[in-house]
Amino acid sequence: MLDFLFGLHLWAVALLLIAFLATFALGSVWAYRRFVLPRMRIKPEDAEYSGAVTQSVFVCYGLVAALTAVQVWERYSQVSEIVSNEATTIATLWRDCGSYPSPVKETLRGELRDYTDQVIHGAFVEMKHGRVPTQGVALIDQLQETLFAFEPTTESQKILHAETLRAFNQMLHARRQRVDVATTALPTVLWFVLLPGAFACILLSLLYRIEEPKLQYFCTFGLASFIAMVLFVIFALDRPFVGDMGITPDSYRIIYEQLMKQ
Question: Which domain, by its residues, includes 72?
């Protein structure tokens, strides 16, 4: 749902949401005052009931929107941490591989460099388009084969090899986590609550009888704009790797440039 919007810049999405909801809100006010209000016998004592219903809906919708915004932000932060952890384990593994004897050291570092390059220029490109990356599997298998084939002969090599295997397993764990969240997104059912709920809040706000048309237009426009910005925040953080707010491979790129090209 809303997949086509992820191809737009965030500023364009923000303007589109505000324009769409604001147009709906202002059009609703005009239609309500032009066609509905003259036919409704709203008395001052009715305002108490309509106000209570409207406020109840606003509270429920605000609670759903707030919890959703917190949830997508927490998930975005968790995915950022997963990416950072994988980059850190790659750096650790690179330094561990540097202590192996030649030619194993050169082979291990070459394979690790190829994997890091693939993550930067391959995996993140796939994830940015909402797809699960698979090209790194062969590179990981090759690195594992080379690492497992090494047989340490001294005590120091045994300790080093054990630490390298531990770092390698940590990297595999971090990579698996990153791949698992590559296509993470809010369930569609939540969007079916958030979007119709936004329209419902705008329509229910019209039940307050306001004599001054300009005041009602202004207040309804403000309500629609605020709801649009809340939806914008949820949308911007919904898919951690997609869009202008998508997580970038900068952590890997720093390691590649500062360590692997020396």
Answer: 3-34+46-214+230-260
